[in-house]
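We both want to read C-alpha cells more fluently, so let's practise on a single case. Would you supply a protein for us yourself, any chain you care to pick? Would you write everything just below, so we can both look at the same thing?
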Amino acid sequence: MFVTRNLRLASVLALLASSALGYVTISPEGAGASNSHASYAAVCPVSAVSIARCDALVVTDAQGNPLASRVPPAGAYGPTQFHLGYSLPTQSTSVQKIGIVDAYDDPNIAKDLATFDSNYSLPPCTVANSCLVKVNQTGGTKYPQSNSGWALEISLDVEMAHEICQNCQILLVEASSASIANLGAAVNEAVKLGANVISNSYGSSEYSGEVADQNSYFNHPRVAITASAGDGGYGVEFPAASSYVTAVGGTTLNLNSNASYLSESAWSGTGSGCSAYAPKPSWQTDTGCSKRTVADVSADADPNTGAAVYDSVRYQGQSGWYQVGGTSLSSPLIAAVYALAGNASSVNYGSYPYAHSPSLHDVTTGSNGSCGTYLCTAGVGYDGPTGLGSPNGTGGF
C-alpha cells in the first residue's frame, strides 16, 4: 500500500530511466531543494491494537517500487543539510548514549553504518570502538529474526542519530517483535544499559490499556524519550500519546542553496490531535484537548525532503541508498538534538521545550487534516502538527 503524489512527466521519465539502469547518477549529497513530486510507500505493515508499525516512508518509482541507488539520491538530505538547516553542532560536549529501539534484527547494521560514515566522511561508529552496541530486548546477543522493513527503519534510526550527534554512543536494542510489550521491554533495557536519550520510531492505534503501559515502559525521569507522531495525518498513536515522551511531529524542511534554513511547514502526513486515554501533562496548557495533545515539537519528515539512508538488507529485492521520510525520521533527529544539548539527565519528561520555545523555529503554515482548529493546522505558537516548532540550535532541548 502506498501513497502517490502526482509526478511531472519529465520526473516520471527520469525515474523510469534510472530504474532501468539500477542506479541514479547524482551528486554525493542533496543540494537542498525538495523533490516535491515524489511518490512514497509505507515501509512496515499496518499496525493493530498494541502492535506497532514503523513510521518510515520510502520514496518509490511510479509503479510503487522502492528506489534504491548506488549513491545517495539527489533530493535526499544528508549531514550537511540537517546541521546547517537546523543550526546544529556536530558533537555533544559531554558523553551521551542514544538508545534506538526497534523491532526485529538488522544483521547488517554495523557494516551499513560504516558505509554511511565513509560516504559522508563522518567519524567511524563501530562495534570495535564501542560507539555502536547492539543487544536484544533482554540485553543479550541472541538477536530476533530479521525483517527487511524494520531493517530499513533501523538503518534510518541509527544513521540519523550518528550523523546528528557524531560523538554519541549508539545503543541499538532490538525487540523480539513489534508488540508494544516487547518494544516497551526494549525501552526499559535501554534505560538499564545507560541510555540518556531513547528514540522510538513506531506506533500503534490507541487502546484502553496504554496508560498502564506508559507507566510500565516509558516512565523514566531524567531520560529524554522521543516518539514518532505517526504518518497517517490527523490522529494520534501510542507511544506518542504517552505523557512521558516528547511526541515528535513532522515538517517539510526547505533549504537555501547553501543548505541554510529557508522555510518550514507542517507535513500533511504527520499525526496530531487529542489522546483518548493519556492524561495531560502539567506543562501542556492548550485548551483544545482535555487529555494529552500530540505533538510537542517537530522536525523534517516529508519523504520529499527525506534523509539519505544506506541499507543492504534487500528491502523488496532492492539494496543500497534510499530516500526515507516519515516521522521515523523526525524522532531520531530530535533524540540526537537532545543528546547534543546534553540536558537529558535534568529534563522532566517532555517539558523542557515548553520552557524554551523561543529557541525553536515556530512553524506557522501547513496542515494535516480538516479539523478546523490548531490541532490539525499550524499557526503562530503551539499547534498540533508541529508542536512548539523545530530545532534552531540546541537551546530548545
Residues 28 and 303 are 18 Å apart (CA to CA). Confidence is low (pLDDT under 50) at residues 1-36. The chain has one domain: 86-301+326-391.
